[in-house]
Amino acid sequence: MTGKARRPNILLITCDQWRGDCLSSAGHPVVKTPNADALAAEGLLFKRHYGGAAPCSPARACLYTGLYQMNNRVCRNGTPLDARHGNIALHACGLGYDPTLFGYTDVSLDPRLLAPGDPRLQSYEGVLPGFTVRQLLPEHQKQWLSWLKLRGVDASAGSPDIHRPVNGDKSGAVSNAPPVYSRDETPAAFLTGEFSRWLSEQERAAPWFAHLSFISPHPPFIVPEPYNTLYDPEEGPAFRRAASWQEEVQSHPYLAYDIGRQKQAKFRADASGKVHDWSDDDFRRIRAIYYGMISEVDAQLGRIWQAVKDAGAWDDTIIVLTSDHAEMMGDHFMLGKGGYFDGSYHIPLIIRDPRHGQAAGGSVDRFTEAVDIVPTLLDLLGEDPEPHLDGYSLRPFLDGKNPKAWRDAAHWEFDFRSIAEGEAEHHFGITSRQCNLAVIRTEKFKYVHFGGGLPPLLFDLESDPGELNNLAADPQHFAVRLEFAERLLAWRAEHLDQSLALAELTEHGIAGHAADLPPP
């Protein structure tokens, strides 16, 4: 890089399952996130940012590739990511970085490039191509467990049993009792320490790229002291839901299917039964624990900011803080992610670039999406984002501008197929290709279109922010329903895979985008 300006460092942080409204800088009435807020004070908070899909693998495919699910085609955890797609790590490699991973990426590798007996074909927790792994932390968490053992913590229970409450209430009610590990021994604390150690090894003259992928505040919902009692279960906004779960499931066949499948054990290692059987008090206690988990990971963010400053890199580092998808957290008697509600897809986004501080401390109320991250980072690194990407660079907002030609809606997709077991296919009597939905959400309306003949949904979000009153069959809203169905169709037509469609073979050779593409 002799003769050229030094590229900035890149720090990409994802906190799994963090709701976009659960930031004090975003106006949450209860949750306090001073370290995320400190980043927002020097950067820009995007208040209407949405994930592109759920659960983890599909959401991250959108984030890492800059492509909608209709193009990256990662439908479920375990769906392989086609090797022909570029991604943020490969782009970074091409610019001279050695992108380094702390945590996980949940990418199922393309089986066509692996031998039949390759053990990587037995897990959806593969590593995104292009990343150097410094500290992997997959679902079994063995690396963290062995670290706990070295610290004298009894980790023999393994994961997820180590996340059971110590001396918890045996009555079956949700307890806020802490786990066996302390605030300094959480998975997030472990990864933060590993990142800080790695950071101390970096040469000041060479730019670095690090991706910290935290599991928090993903379930199991449990957190050490003092975060387990930091929030009063009685405090917090009202749940957005019907009067009862029995009434809730009457609103749509898919919702009935989804609510009926949710098991308590997925969210609390000490629980059994169905999620909808938890009482209001249980849901509130779980929510208070979730808020505490957010505060715990926020404390680790503070350690990260200090480590970057201590390394003398704060003024040379672009920081992106976001999530893959969000968390229902009691709304509609649900926990987790998926389906079509905002609670599953509205996620945080804060970007700080010390070179583009014109809008520092401000916020953006325009609709932004996970697919915008790749083109934004490329643009900030002085590269032209590839024109086939579905996202748009957010750099104009960082420069204090308000682009007129910007999307006026957020879009996301959810695929509920089950290739291995065929559960959804059997339940609805449809094919795997039909187990999907797509959403267009403007400031006023949300339209949800289902495959397989399932009925659509239409919500007036101004009068019904809880998404409780489906207007799709209301004759007075037929025109709105048609308009949004046409808008959704136009969106899909515009964004269908453009990787080679933006090229043409002519008598003078290749014209357009494909001239610069690597071979498949």
From TrEMBL:
Q: Which Pfam families match?
A: Sulfatase
Q: Check the record and name the Gene3D superfamilies matching this protein.
A: Alkaline Phosphatase, subunit A
Calcium: present as a keyword of the record? no
By what name is this protein known? Answer: Alkaline phosphatase family protein
Q: Identify the stretch(es) annotated as Disordered.
A: 159-179
Organism of origin: Mesorhizobium cantuariense
Q: Which UniProt keywords apply?
A: Hydrolase, Metal-binding
InterPro entries in the record, alphabetically? Alkaline_phosphatase_core_sf, Sulfatase_N
Task: Provide the Sulfatase N-terminal domain boundaries.
Answer: 8-382
The answer to whether keyword Metal-binding applies is yes
- Signal peptide positions on this chain: none
Q: Which domain of life is it from?
A: Bacteria
